[in-house]
Specification:
By secondary structure, this protein is an alpha+beta fold. It has 14 helices and eleven strands. The strands form three sheets. The chain has a four-stranded antiparallel beta sheet with strand order 3-2-1-4, with no helix packed on it. Strands 5-6-8-7 form a four-stranded antiparallel beta sheet. Helix 7 (155-170) packs across helix 13 (316-324). The longest helix is centred in the C-terminal third of the chain and has 18 residues, at 332-349. The radius of gyration is 21 Å and the shape is globular.
Length: 350
């Protein structure tokens, strides 16, 4: 356990008191959902730290001369600041403001993304890479005053990420925008410093159960529940094997603490053909579809709400238009048949 004294902050507002590493007081309106739901300080820090299993994470910690390389202390190196929210930790012996701790540059983007050896010539400085979570090598880049995340991947992973973005956008779903950039995929920070992103693990822990999550979202707002159903529909249609409680969540108003919406759909690079082409293009005995059907069969409220959604029909032309926007060569016939078969099974089943 991290033995610290200070405050978890939201910009320059104190939102949780930490004494000897324990949470002793929480502002129920403004504090991170993690603390509102009674979770501890150390796990909050650990959940904000770069994945230590990434090879470039080890290089980054080496060039920054980090003495304590465990997850909690790694996050504390930059006061637990991240790009996608304005929460941070201010120790009692620190006289700092939000303007002083938030990130305004990143000289270690190339090291975090591709292990660039020239980065070892840079002097240690504050970098958002220490709190850039996830298992893939990635980095934040500040372009014209806006933060963009760049992510590495093979051709199938890059195609899958971009295709699902374009398909979701064509359906009118709430999608984080993805673009192709010189062999990488990039996505703009969807918070833009104006809202706080809260991963749903702050509420659900590791519980990915569709019904439990739907019920929670439905209690918050029908609109949030609808966006969750659309995310599950797209996941099922595009064979997303990797939807977990760290890659979807909620947006909150910085000024009021109000929960506004589900965050845009993002992180779809372990879906569709990312790990190779599925054997059954017919979608027979499809496990991802089965999970979706079981959820709807066992949650009547979710099923009725899903049936009421006016989701556009995907055509062959819709899919071709999405494929044509992506400069990665794939088996287009397979993608077309796979998606249309999935749509047919969902429409026939529901």
């Amino acid at each position: 356990m991290i033995d610290s004294n200070g405050y978890v902050m939201s910009a320059d507002r104190q939102v949780a008191r930490i004494e000897n590493g324990l949470v002793v007081d929480v502002d129920e309106q403004f504090a991170p959902l993690h603390f509102i739901n009674g979770k501890d300080f150390t796990s909050w820090l650990e959940g904000r730290a770069i994945d230590s299993h990434r090879a470039n994470s080890r290089l980054l910690k080496k060039v920054l001369r980090l003495a304590n390389r465990d997850d909690a202390n790694t996050a504390l190196t930059v006061n637990a600041v991240t790009i996608t929210d304005n929460y941070w930790f201010k120790a009692d012996d620190e006289n700092l403001t939000w303007d002083e701790v938030k990130f305004n540059e990143n000289v270690f983007d190339n090291l975090a993304l591709k292990g660039d050896p020239d980065s070892f010539n840079q002097k240690p400085s504050r970098t958002p890479e220490l709190t850039n979570i996830g298992s893939f090598e990635k980095c934040w880049r500040l372009i014209d005053g806006k933060w963009w995340m760049y992510k590495i991947g093979n051709d199938n992973q890059i195609f899958s990420e971009l295709f699902i973005y374009h398909l979701g956008h064509a359906l009118g779903f709430n999608m984080a925008k993805y673009e192709y950039d010189n062999g990488y995929v990039k996505t703009k920070d969807f918070t833009d410093g104006k809202v706080n992103f809260e991963p749903i693990c702050s509420v659900m822990g590791d519980n990915e159960d569709y019904s439990d999550n739907f019920d929670y979202f439905m209690n918050l707002s029908k609109d949030i529940a609808v966006d969750y159903l659309k995310m599950l529909y797209l996941d099922s249609l595009c064979y997303n094997m990797d939807r977990h409680t760290n890659n979807y969540g909620l947006l909150r108003d910085i000024e009021t603490g109000e929960i506004l919406s589900l965050a845009p759909n993002y992180d779809n690079n372990i879906a569709l053909i990312a790990n190779g082409y599925p054997k059954a293009v017919s979608r027979e005995k499809d496990g991802i579809l089965r999970f979706f059907f079981e959820f709807l069969d066992n949650n009547s409220e979710a099923k009725e709400l899903f049936k009421s959604l006016d989701i556009p029909v995907i055509t062959k032309e819709t899919i071709i238009n999405c494929i044509d926007k992506i400069p990665v060569k794939v088996d287009s016939d397979f993608i077309i048949e796979f998606i249309l078969n999935g749509q047919k099974k969902i429409r026939n089943r529901v």
